[in-house]
Amino acid sequence: MDDLLHISSREFTSRLLVGTGKYPSATLAKEAIEASGAEIITAAVRRINLAKTGVQNLQDLLPVNEYTYLPNSAGCYSAESAIRTLRLARVLSGDNLIKLEVIGDKNSLYPNMQETIQAAKILVAEDFEVMVYCNDDPVAAKELERIGCAAIMPLASPIGSGCGILNPLNIKIIIEQSQVPVIVDAGIGTASDAAIAMEMGADGVLLNTAIAKAGNPVKMAVAMKYAVQSGRLAYLSGRIKKQQFAAASSPKEGMIA
Fold it and tell me: DSSP letter string over 121-167?
């Protein structure tokens, strides 16, 4: 497919982004992530050895010359904490592409949008390429784009819930109003959820639990890969309009009486 995902000045052939946590083993994580075809992989800064020193770490299994690492501020509950974490990531990795997360509630893991917007302003001003996790709120999403975020990442449903897209109307509004990539993030449960997101016009899907906790993570990774691809093709093709009544597949003209 000659249909690249553009994030700032970067280009990617895969529109599936995957996380690296929750797998029962590092070997299985490697196999599943490879099977997914993803080029961007996310990891919480405190979980990865960005300095590449010491014992085996993620980069040993998934080399930086094969994947784009997207360090995130998962687990941060304030703008100050998120900014500090992501500054550290840039110092250690030498890259300014990051995923901003500022969590507001420990049970739902919904983002705190006031703190998220505050952090985004500072990080963008410091020349970070900010991909930002946010609520499915079109007003907040537009504000994050206005600030200068490189990609908007509205949740489909709570992180790890597997509930799929609970508010498709808002997601659709965010997609239609955005001039930067929209990556549907969090809550994807199975391949059909990913396909629906892409059919709606999302630029990509980010998921972790749906693969890592599947009965067979490698097979689910392949399913997600093709779901994202088929959903994108369906969106580009243009679906037929829904109508109230049936429409015969065979034309009436030329029928034998």
Answer: HHHHHTT-EEEEEE-S-HHHHHHHHHHT-SEEEEBSSSTT-----S-
